Amino acid sequence: MSARRPIPIEGGGTLKPVTVSKIRAAKGKEPLVCLTAYTTPIAQALDQSCDLLLVGDSLGMVVYGLESTIPVTLEMMIAHGAAVSRGAKHALVVVDLPFGSYQESPAQAFRSAARILAETGCDAVKLEGGAVMAETIEFLTARGVPVLAHIGLQPQSVNALGGYAARGKQAAEAEAIVADARAVADAGAFAVVVEGVVAPLAARITSTIRVPTIGIGASAECDGQILVTDDMMGMTFGHVPKFVRRYADVGAAVKAAAEAYAEDVRARRFPAEEHLYGATGPKIAAG
Prior knowledge:
The chain is an alpha/beta fold. It contains eleven helices and ten strands. Helix 5 links the parallel strand 5 and strand 6 (124-128). It has helices spanning 20-24, 40-46, 59-62, 74-87, 106-120, 134-142, 158-161, 171-187, 199-208, 229-232, 250-266, and strands at 7-8, 14-15, 32-36, 52-55, 92-96, 124-128, 147-152, 191-195, 213-216, 224-227. It has a single domain (7-248), classed as TIM Barrel (Alpha-Beta Barrel), CATH 3.20.20.60. 37% of the residues lie in helices and 15% in strands.
């Protein structure tokens, strides 16, 4: 676990680091605020506003331009997890176990999780899967690895599920997802991400299990919410999921800044006199 200490906040007082126990105890209380982070500067910017920062395997698409999360490696997750852990002093840092690093067996999952915890300094790992992963979650938690579970729409299984459509519309599927929620909670997960399920089902799951639910494309009645920061900040281009609310348009600001910079460079307005070293000193003769 990362060695984090209380940090001073503006106006006086300190902000204590969030622990796994605090997340678990948040059930039914003030909603948990969660976002993704992949770099140190973004972690620093988000840290004081969030209870939990997730280093999601969504970095495959957001950072690396991949078509899905499937090609993401353990090494990629460790590199970005370490960067975020260095920047976060308050929020709990959770790192995704990538596809293929935990599904084979509980022992494989422990080896992968142990590497992530040791090499990143993060606080917990996240894995996808419901009842089928209950044995693995129990194995990990019994050995000191805190686990955030992930049910409903599971991006690592999108090929088997047939796409990114919302889950739980049919009664049989809804019951299976409820059973998944119960299984991972009973196995020891300290919280459960509920992704891409119809709102009534997410609300039902929240009222059914004893640990917090963190919704993404789910219900406002979940115990917390998470979004991909790049989506929320307008830093992604192309399709934006229905469940995303954009709180800023950083992408447009970056494009505008790049265009202004390009115009100044091409017109030789930049660098100007005030940006030059030795601009007021003796002139150096050419040749």
